[in-house]
């Protein structure tokens, strides 16, 4: 896992961004710098004028994503059905900020909260079509799944020890016997396919919508080449009922991929639940719901 950003994360602010722009991209120094409405954890993002953003990693563990995105996004973009970030400038450490950073074109849309999505089943198909297009992109020399992707795209066995610790910690709080069966099924469903591109973090916060439709996909920091099963997790974290069924039909994938996807969803939900079960009931409830949906899905399809 990437280490937690230090307290100095708060030191990334609009004033720092203004200094970095003035020093390294003086042609843009007169533009206003403002925080975005919804920010991330791995990176801080600021609007630069009306048509650009500045994106800065919050800790050393997130730095490899900068060069990865700068290199691969221009190659991935042309065949994809919706927009992805366009890098306009590559910044270097300076003004007291220790990491590389980037300037990007502003993308139209807002994060895909359910109330912003017109027809959830249609949206599920749009997400599936994006994933299939991404999988068709040329994977030659692409970054193999590993530490840079938080092991998304690799076998879920990387998180076996952590998952079993969470199961032990949550005994009596969730149905850990059924959850253990789901996890074992994920481990048994070994992937033997040709490596393809995966995004690694397909979630509502990384999907942008406008007029109820998918317009862009952002944050390729965990992207790489390997097993795309990790990109199916949205089936349980955002979709349900008809929209989940529409996503499943549209994205395809074999039974093994769905077993591994349930494992990925279960690992993350168990981890977050174990961290919040006694301190944040709102967060805990969300992840209990995901666990319940995953267990029901396993019972139905396995």
What is the strand and helix layout of this fold?
Layout: H1 14-24, E1 33-35, E2 43-48, E3 52-57, H2 64-76, E4 87-91, E5 101-105, E6 110-111, H3 120-136, H4 160-169, H5 176-188, E7 196-198, E8 207-210, E9 213-217, E10 224-226, H6 234-237, H7 241-251, H8 255-276, H9 281-301
Antiparallel strand pairs: 1-2, 2-3, 3-5, 4-5, 6-8, 7-10, 8-9
List keywords for this structure.
302 residues; alpha+beta; Phosphorylase Kinase, domain 1; Aminoglycoside 3'-phosphotransferase, Chain: A, domain 2; 5-stranded antiparallel beta sheet; 3-stranded antiparallel beta sheet; globular; disordered N terminus
What's the total count of β strands? 10
Low-confidence stretches: 1-8
Name given to the CATH architecture of the largest domain? Alpha-Beta Complex
CA gyration radius, whole angstroms: 20 Å
Portion of residues in beta strands equals 5-15%
The third-level CATH topology of the largest domain is Aminoglycoside 3'-phosphotransferase, Chain: A, domain 2
Spatial order of strands in the largest sheet: 1-2-3-5-4
According to CATH, what is the class of the largest domain? Answer: Alpha Beta
Entry summary:
The protein is of the alpha+beta class. 40% of the residues lie in helices and 14% in strands. A 5-stranded antiparallel β-sheet has the order 1-2-3-5-4, with helices on both faces.
Describe the 3D structure.
The protein has 302 residues and is an alpha+beta fold. It has two domains: 7-106, 2-Layer Sandwich (Phosphorylase Kinase, domain 1); 111-301, Aminoglycoside phosphotransferase (APH), C-terminal lobe (Aminoglycoside 3'-phosphotransferase, Chain: A, domain 2, Alpha-Beta Complex). Helices cover 40% and strands 14% of the residues. It is built from nine helices and ten strands. A five-stranded antiparallel sheet has the order 1-2-3-5-4, with helices on both faces. A hairpin with a 3-residue loop joins β2 and β3 (52-57). α4 (160-169) packs antiparallel against α5 (176-188) and α4 (160-169) crosses α8. The longest helix has 22 residues, at 255-276. The protein is globular and about 60 Å long.
